[in-house]
From TrEMBL:
NCBIfam families: gatC. InterPro entries: Asp/Glu-ADT_sf_sub_c, GatC. Heterotrimer of A, B and C subunits. It comes from Paenibacillus curdlanolyticus YK9. PANTHER family: GLUTAMYL-TRNA(GLN) AMIDOTRANSFERASE SUBUNIT C, MITOCHONDRIAL. Residues 76-95 are annotated as: Disordered. Pfam families: GatC (PF02686). This is Aspartyl/glutamyl-tRNA(Asn/Gln) amidotransferase subunit C. One of its GO terms (biological process) is translation. Keywords: ATP-binding, Ligase, Nucleotide-binding, Protein biosynthesis, Transferase. Belongs to the GatC family. Allows the formation of correctly charged Asn-tRNA(Asn) or Gln-tRNA(Gln) through the transamidation of misacylated Asp-tRNA(Asn) or Glu-tRNA(Gln) in organisms which lack either or both of asparaginyl-tRNA or glutaminyl-tRNA synthetases. The reaction takes place in the presence of glutamine and ATP through an activated phospho-Asp-tRNA(Asn) or phospho-Glu-tRNA(Gln). GO terms for molecular function: asparaginyl-tRNA synthase (glutamine-hydrolyzing) activity; ATP binding; glutaminyl-tRNA synthase (glutamine-hydrolyzing) activity; transferase activity.
Length: 95
Protein backbone atom coordinates (compact mmCIF):
# COMPACT_ATOMS: atom_id res chain seq x y z
CA UNK A 1 0.00 0.00 0.00
CA UNK A 2 1.29 3.43 -0.81
CA UNK A 3 0.07 6.97 -0.38
CA UNK A 4 -0.44 9.16 -3.43
CA UNK A 5 -0.64 12.92 -3.63
CA UNK A 6 -4.38 12.47 -4.20
CA UNK A 7 -4.61 10.74 -0.81
CA UNK A 8 -2.72 13.61 0.80
CA UNK A 9 -5.02 16.11 -0.92
CA UNK A 10 -8.07 14.22 0.36
CA UNK A 11 -6.84 14.21 3.96
CA UNK A 12 -5.84 17.87 3.71
CA UNK A 13 -9.33 18.72 2.47
CA UNK A 14 -10.91 16.82 5.39
CA UNK A 15 -8.63 18.70 7.78
CA UNK A 16 -9.36 21.97 5.96
CA UNK A 17 -5.67 22.52 5.21
CA UNK A 18 -4.19 24.30 2.24
CA UNK A 19 -0.98 22.64 1.12
CA UNK A 20 1.64 23.85 -1.30
CA UNK A 21 3.04 21.48 -3.92
CA UNK A 22 6.22 21.19 -1.84
CA UNK A 23 4.26 20.27 1.31
CA UNK A 24 2.18 17.78 -0.67
CA UNK A 25 5.33 16.04 -1.91
CA UNK A 26 6.92 16.11 1.56
CA UNK A 27 3.87 14.61 3.27
CA UNK A 28 3.48 11.96 0.57
CA UNK A 29 7.07 10.85 1.12
CA UNK A 30 6.79 10.91 4.90
CA UNK A 31 3.53 8.93 4.96
CA UNK A 32 4.95 6.33 2.57
CA UNK A 33 8.02 5.98 4.81
CA UNK A 34 5.75 5.39 7.81
CA UNK A 35 3.77 2.71 5.94
CA UNK A 36 6.97 1.03 4.74
CA UNK A 37 8.23 0.89 8.33
CA UNK A 38 4.89 -0.48 9.57
CA UNK A 39 4.96 -3.23 6.92
CA UNK A 40 8.02 -4.67 8.69
CA UNK A 41 5.55 -5.99 11.26
CA UNK A 42 4.24 -8.40 8.61
CA UNK A 43 7.62 -10.16 8.73
CA UNK A 44 7.04 -11.24 12.33
CA UNK A 45 5.77 -14.72 13.10
CA UNK A 46 2.72 -14.16 15.28
CA UNK A 47 1.17 -17.63 14.97
CA UNK A 48 1.57 -18.43 18.69
CA UNK A 49 0.67 -14.96 19.97
CA UNK A 50 -2.78 -14.60 21.47
CA UNK A 51 -4.74 -11.46 20.57
CA UNK A 52 -4.92 -9.01 23.44
CA UNK A 53 -6.32 -5.59 24.12
CA UNK A 54 -3.65 -4.65 26.66
CA UNK A 55 0.01 -5.50 27.15
CA UNK A 56 -0.46 -6.32 30.82
CA UNK A 57 -2.86 -8.93 32.23
CA UNK A 58 -5.10 -6.46 34.04
CA UNK A 59 -8.40 -7.33 35.62
CA UNK A 60 -10.97 -4.85 36.88
CA UNK A 61 -8.92 -1.91 38.16
CA UNK A 62 -11.82 0.19 39.43
CA UNK A 63 -12.66 0.49 43.07
CA UNK A 64 -15.78 -1.05 44.50
CA UNK A 65 -18.76 1.27 44.81
CA UNK A 66 -19.68 2.33 48.28
CA UNK A 67 -22.71 4.26 49.42
CA UNK A 68 -21.92 7.53 51.14
CA UNK A 69 -23.78 10.79 51.72
CA UNK A 70 -23.97 13.34 48.95
CA UNK A 71 -22.95 16.97 49.17
CA UNK A 72 -25.84 19.07 50.50
CA UNK A 73 -27.66 21.05 47.80
CA UNK A 74 -26.86 24.38 49.47
CA UNK A 75 -23.13 23.57 49.44
CA UNK A 76 -23.21 22.49 45.79
CA UNK A 77 -25.04 25.67 44.73
CA UNK A 78 -22.88 28.01 46.81
CA UNK A 79 -20.42 28.73 43.96
CA UNK A 80 -22.90 28.48 41.11
CA UNK A 81 -23.01 31.70 39.08
CA UNK A 82 -26.73 31.17 38.47
CA UNK A 83 -29.24 28.61 39.72
CA UNK A 84 -32.93 27.95 39.36
CA UNK A 85 -35.08 25.48 41.31
CA UNK A 86 -32.03 23.79 42.82
CA UNK A 87 -30.32 23.27 39.44
CA UNK A 88 -27.35 24.95 37.76
CA UNK A 89 -28.59 27.43 35.18
CA UNK A 90 -26.44 27.64 32.06
CA UNK A 91 -26.80 29.51 28.78
CA UNK A 92 -28.68 27.68 26.05
CA UNK A 93 -26.42 26.05 23.46
CA UNK A 94 -29.16 25.20 20.96
CA UNK A 95 -31.60 27.54 19.35
Amino acid sequence: MSITTNDVDHVAKLARLSLTDEERATFTGQLNAILKYAEKLNELNTDDVEPTSHVLPLANVTRADEVRPSVPLETAMRNAPDEEDGQFKVPAVLE
